[in-house]
Specification:
The complex is a heterodimer.
Chain A lengths: L2 E2 L9 E3 L7 H14 L9 E2 L29 H10 L13 H7 L4 E3 L5 E3 L4 H6 L4 E2 L3 E5 L6 H15 L4 E5 L12 E3 L2 H14 L8 H6 L9 H7 L3 E6 L10 E5 L7 H12 L12 E5 L13 H16 L3 E7 L6 H10 L2 E7 L5 H6 L6 E9 L15 E7 L3 E6 L31
Parallel strand pairs in A: 2-3, 7-13, 7-14, 8-11, 8-12, 12-13
Antiparallel strand pairs in A: 1-2, 4-5, 5-6, 9-10, 14-15, 15-16, 16-17
Helix pairs in contact in A: 9-10, 10-11
Chain B lengths: L1 H4 L2 H6 L14 E6 L6 H11 L7 E6 L4 H11 L3 H6 L3 E5 L10 H21 L9 E6 L1 H7 L4 H17 L3 E7 H4 L6 H9 L2 E6 L11 E7 L12 E12 L4 E8 L20 E4 L2 E4 L5
Parallel strand pairs in B: 1-5, 1-6, 2-3, 2-4, 4-5
Antiparallel strand pairs in B: 6-7, 7-8, 8-9, 10-11
The chains are: A alpha/beta, B alpha/beta.
């Protein structure tokens, strides 16, 4: 808590620590009051610990008596700053690293937030996936999801993606090989009621309470600033979707959702025209971002479509779509079953994607997997992240793990979790197999000694 | 300053010597990568080296994969301003993102689009002032997308590449191309990639580590430099194998590619011992300074 020591010989009042509930303005006022009180002394110094992003007080004017004061820091984008502050000897240059993300992202359109290298993110609809991908799907990128023929988990991703767009009021273009694409909109989930959100919030807030910087390892390892630390904005950016509750009909107004069936058309020219006209409405100007658009194309090479055996036609469609989307404020998600394409075509599609995900089904009653992984009973499937978009940068995004389990919490909420090894049974004495970064087929051999 | 920024990759390519004559002139470089590890960082590094102030290179960049803004941002972090270079006519950018040869007349039009592209390149080279004509570098980002643009006509793409190759002997320009090797690995007779590998003087391969995902190494790079008679009588193949990591130094806003020497057991017989004087790449995090050392 806030502690104000009685000034001793050097008349240095120290205020350190900041309880999360106390707003910054109060701290500043309090510190100003403290300073005013000690104006009489020759060296009016006050040691203040503030999250470095608050730069209204010039730190150079305050001399820091205890370098450990800077060990109190807060989560989110301040991490990098505080490591520097702690490691520097005398003058911490707190303001040099602060990113004014708070100022920019909050005033922008909801559902769009700024990312590094001049990119802007939209949420994928799944909070865990946003975190894994470092913020969400960047605008102007092409996301591909490789389906598994055995299970329709890609539909979960697609549903959340589309719902998120509709909830934010972002126009949506949906193409599907089914006879009635509009019917799919009835299966879109609705945002969960607030009650559930609050309970999740509270538990995550507790774990982010007080952190002490002696744990340098944590911050040295992370070189990606964390963008989603704004608790108040988090609700707006990514909603928690209740898969059992359908989305209210008023979201499906004609001008926002456009559904295209690709089964009947001879080639992809019609779809390309639709996409072109949609993307033309979301052209990226150098000014502010207007409304972001979303395109969801399901099962592009589904066998019931006539174009499914025209490999080069599909590739050329994707290439032109990618070219168009690069200069617009939209995200395109394409799902496709890779088993229906030739190997080299599959690789070409994978290379064209900016972000590449794949879903895999897991068998229901696999005893070996149940032994290896904890929480196996709740798992619905596996999600593999192969590639993360690198727009405007050449540094690849290093993931902590590439395989995640898809679980349904309370059969309603989609969560993605890292794979965890189940506790080893002492008697069996085997299975040092999987670790968090195993690839999709996680049937690792057990070591027998 | 120049010496500090050189790294193993530059030395492997022979770029550590004097910039003039340009060591890569008249040579063909092929960069191969795969889905897990992208090789475009090599391309960016070569752009940066070519546009260094000591050399007088002109780059003709034929981009099929990304728009100009993408490269501009990346090169800016590397310390090279593409906008000014474009204005100074040292960096000529051909945006081919929307090139699509219409397939009304399958045979002719696909070829037509590529022939036009070649003519454009030729016209640009001939239009350069005399002194700059000797140091042209043609870079093609992504041959696989050229194939898509040609609607699968790999023969036309091969013809186009052969014509560009002819330019290397005619005008002494260098040709640097990027292709994805894993696309062709499943084909029976991958003519395109085999011919390109044959033509290439320098072959650079970016692959993931065989051991899997790692937080501090992005992948491994293999550089095969087929010696020619240019290089002061040195001949014979040189194979270098590195582990590489790409990162951004936030402090100086500079990207430094640090390439550590990796271990490659199968190529040991060809590898020369590489003695290094100390730092070959360094990164700063405010007051911390970590230098990467290399040990044979």
């Amino acid at each position: 808590m806030k502690a104000a020591q009685t000034p001793h010989k050097k008349e240095v009042p120290c205020v350190f620590g900041r309880p999360p509930q106390l707003p910054i303005t109060k701290i500043i006022r309090l510190s100003a009051a403290l300073l005013a009180r000690h104006r009489r002394c020759s060296t009016p110094t006050a040691a203040l610990s503030l999250p470095p992003r608050v730069c209204s007080l010039r730190p150079e004017s305050l001399s820091c008596r205890l370098s450990t004061i800077y060990s109190w820091h807060f989560t989110g984008k301040t991490k990098l700053c505080s490591v520097d502050a702690a490691m520097a000897t005398t003058k911490p240059r707190l303001s040099s690293f602060s990113r004014n993300l708070s100022a920019v992202s909050s005033s922008q359109t909801p559902g769009v937030k700024c990312g590094p290298n001049g990119t802007m993110f939209v949420s994928s609809g799944i909070a865990d996936l946003d975190k894994i991908l470092g913020g969400g799907f960047p605008l102007g990128s092409l996301v591909m999801v490789m389906e598994d023929a055995e299970a329709p988990h890609h539909m979960l991703l697609l549903r959340n993606f589309m719902s998120q767009g509709l909830v934010h009021g972002q126009p949506l273009l949906y193409a599907s090989p089914s006879k009635d694409p509009r019917g799919f909109l009835g299966t879109l989930p609705s945002p969960a009621s607030l009650k559930h959100d609050k309970s999740r919030d509270r538990e995550s807030e507790q774990e982010k309470g007080l952190r002490i910087a002696w744990q340098y390892k944590k911050y040295m390892g992370e070189n990606q600033p964390n963008f989603d630390s704004h608790r108040d904005n988090k609700q707006d950016y990514c909603n928690e979707f209740d898969l059992r509750k359908p989305l209210e009909r008023h979201y499906f107004t004609r001008q926002r959702v456009n559904c295209v069936g690709i089964q009947d058309s001879k080639n992809l020219a019609a779809l390309q025209e639709h996409c072109a006209s949609f993307l033309a409405q979301h052209q990226r100007n150098d000014g502010s971002c207007a409304l972001a658009g979303r395109i969801a194309i399901q099962s592009l090479c589904a066998p019931q479509c006539e174009h499914s055996n025209m490999d080069w036609e599909m590739l050329s469609f994707i290439k032109s779509l990618k070219g168009m989307v690069r200069s617009s404020n939209a995200v395109v998600v394409i799902t496709f079953p890779p088993s229906l394409l030739s190997l080299s075509s599959t690789k070409r599609w994978q290379h064209m994607a900016d972000t590449l995900l794949s879903v895999a089904a897991i068998p229901d009653e696999d005893k070996e997997l149940a032994k290896l992984l904890s929480g196996y009973q709740d798992m619905v499937g596996l999600l593999n992240v192969h590639k993360v978009a690198r727009l405007n940068t050449q540094v690849p995004f290093i993931l902590e793990a590439t395989t995640f389990s898809i679980k349904l919490q309370k059969r309603r909420f989609l969560v993605l979790e890292c794979l965890n090894q189940a506790p080893v049974d002492g008697s069996s004495g085997s299975s040092y197999g999987t670790s968090g970064s195993c690839s999709g087929s996680s049937k690792a051999g057990t070591l027998d000694f | 300053m120049e010496n500090q920024n050189l790294n193993l990759l530059d030395r492997a390519l022979g770029l550590d010597g004097p910039s003039e004559p340009w060591p890569l002139s008249g040579r063909v470089v092929l960069i191969e990568d795969c889905v897990e590890t992208s090789g475009s960082f090599v391309l960016h590094q070569l752009v940066k080296r070519s546009l260094s102030p000591t050399s007088s290179n002109v780059i003709i960049f034929v981009a099929f994969a990304n728009p100009f803004s993408h490269y501009d941002r990346i090169l800016r972090k590397l310390g090279c301003n593409l906008v000014t270079q474009r204005d100074n006519k040292r960096f000529i950018f051909f945006d081919m993102l929307m090139l699509r040869c219409p397939d009304v007349d399958e045979g002719k039009s696909s070829e037509g689009g590529l022939v036009l592209l070649y003519e454009k390149i030729l016209k640009t080279i001939c239009g350069l002032p005399g002194d700059k004509k000797d140091y042209v570098t043609i870079m093609i980002d992504d041959i696989s997308l050229v194939e898509v643009a040609a609607n699968g006509g790999s023969d036309y793409v091969l013809d186009f590449l052969h014509y560009c190759h002819a330019l290397t002997s005619e005008f002494d320009c260098s040709l640097i191309t990027l292709n994805h090797e894993d696309i062709y690995s499943s084909m029976e007779r991958p003519t395109l990639i085999l011919q390109m590998e044959y033509l290439a003087d320098i072959l650079i391969k970016a692959e993931p580590l065989s051991t899997g995902l790692a937080t501090d190494v992005h992948g491994q790079l293999t550089v095969l430099n087929k010696g020619t008679s240019h290089r002061l009588g040195r001949s014979g193949n040189k194979i270098h194998n590195f582990h590489y990591k790409l990162y951004v130094v936030l402090w100086r806003k500079k990207l430094v590619i640090s390439i550590d020497k990796g271990y490659s057991s199968e190529k040991r017989s060809f590898r020369r011992t590489y003695h290094v004087n100390g730092r070959l790449g360094f990164w700063n995090l405010n007051t911390l300074c970590v230098t990467h050392l290399l040990n044979g």
